[in-house]
């Protein structure tokens, strides 16, 4: 894929979702870190419902470790994998207090060493909380990148990230991350993508396949052409 094609994709998605942003509710780097940790295998909508009360009860790392693990588990039980996430939150908070004065570190290398914080979470935190350009590859970004030909079907998440970093100007990494998520979440969905109304159909592998005319048999046994969607 050449730069002109990439520019066309970025501009088109930008026109579709000019207000794309992080949809996880937070007011500081610490809350964002907790929210992203909770969001693994869970929708942002569910996370925001849980953190609405969670962030009122727990305002600092100290607050999370002062309660029994069982209590924290109950507070986040609507979140998938809540038991494991509760353990990671308390472990993370202890490390923040012991090593970083209770503050979330701004360095990517330090973030990925925290319990429950992987590369994607670290990318979200550094880009949204500390304005460091980064592309976090979640399921939406991965799916859209592969469908639009910016990455290969067999590419790992890390390979997708590296390819996007080469194709997209660095000062647009964070914005592109948000726009790709919105495009995948609200338009190019996993099961029912809106191919019939997509302005990027001509460059989409999946879309071309879905919209390709196929031969079906009508009730009288005659061959007729229909279009899938």
From TrEMBL:
Keywords: 4Fe-4S, DNA damage, DNA repair, DNA-binding, Endonuclease, Glycosidase, Hydrolase, Iron, Iron-sulfur, Lyase, Metal-binding, Nuclease
Reactions catalysed: 2'-deoxyribonucleotide-(2'-deoxyribose 5'-phosphate)-2'-deoxyribonucleotide-DNA = a 3'-end 2'-deoxyribonucleotide-(2,3-dehydro-2,3-deoxyribose 5'-phosphate)-DNA + a 5'-end 5'-phospho-2'-deoxyribonucleoside-DNA + H(+)
Required co-factors: [4Fe-4S] cluster
InterPro entries hit by this protein: DNA_glycosylase (IPR011257), Endonuclease-III-like_CS2 (IPR004036), Endonuclease3_FeS-loop_motif (IPR003651), Endouclease-III_FeS-bd_BS (IPR004035), HhH-GPD_domain (IPR003265), HhH_base_excis_C (IPR023170), HhH_motif (IPR000445), Nth (IPR005759)
EC number: 4.2.99.18
Any one GO MF annotation of this record: endonuclease activity
Residues that coordinate or bind [4Fe-4S] cluster: 188, 195, 198, 204
Gene3D superfamilies: Helix-hairpin-Helix base-excision DNA repair enzymes (C-terminal), Hypothetical protein, domain 2
Primary enzyme class: lyase
PROSITE patterns linked to this entry: ENDONUCLEASE_III_1 (PS00764), ENDONUCLEASE_III_2 (PS01155)
Cofactor note (record): Binds 1 [4Fe-4S] cluster.
Source organism superkingdom: Bacteria
Domain HhH-GPD: 38-186
Region (Disordered) residue spans: 209-229
Protein purpose: DNA repair enzyme that has both DNA N-glycosylase activity and AP-lyase activity. The DNA N-glycosylase activity releases various damaged pyrimidines from DNA by cleaving the N-glycosidic bond, leaving an AP (apurinic/apyrimidinic) site. The AP-lyase activity cleaves the phosphodiester bond 3' to the AP site by a beta-elimination, leaving a 3'-terminal unsaturated sugar and a product with a terminal 5'-phosphate.
Record family assignment: Belongs to the Nth/MutY family.
PANTHER family referenced in this protein's UniProt entry, alphabetically: A/G-SPECIFIC ADENINE GLYCOSYLASE/ENDONUCLEASE III, ENDONUCLEASE III
Protein name, entry field: Endonuclease III
Name of the encoding gene: nth
């Amino acid at each position: 894929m050449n730069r002109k094609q990439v520019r066309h994709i970025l501009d088109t998605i930008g026109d579709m979702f000019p207000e794309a942003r992080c949809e996880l509710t937070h007011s500081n780097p610490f809350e964002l870190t907790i929210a992203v940790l909770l969001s693994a295998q869970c929708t942002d909508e569910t996370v925001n419902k849980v953190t609405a009360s969670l962030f009122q009860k727990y305002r600092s790392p100290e607050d999370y470790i002062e309660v029994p693990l069982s209590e924290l588990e109950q507070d986040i039980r609507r979140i998938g994998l809540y038991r494991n996430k509760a353990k990671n939150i308390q472990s993370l908070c202890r490390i923040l207090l012991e090593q970083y004065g209770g503050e979330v570190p701004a360095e990517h290398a330090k973030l990925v060493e925290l319990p429950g914080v992987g590369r994607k979470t670290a990318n979200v935190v550094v880009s949204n909380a500390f304005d460091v350009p980064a592309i976090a590859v979640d399921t939406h970004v991965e799916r859209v990148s592969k469908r639009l030909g910016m990455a290969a079907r067999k590419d790992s998440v890390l390979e997708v990230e590296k390819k996007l970093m080469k194709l997209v100007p660095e000062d647009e990494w964070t914005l592109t991350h948000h726009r790709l998520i919105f495009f995948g979440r609200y338009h190019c969905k996993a099961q029912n993508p809106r191919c019939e109304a997509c302005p990027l159909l001509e460059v989409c592998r999946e879309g071309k396949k879905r919209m390709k005319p196929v031969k079906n048999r009508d009730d009288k046994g005659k061959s007729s052409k229909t279009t899938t969607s």
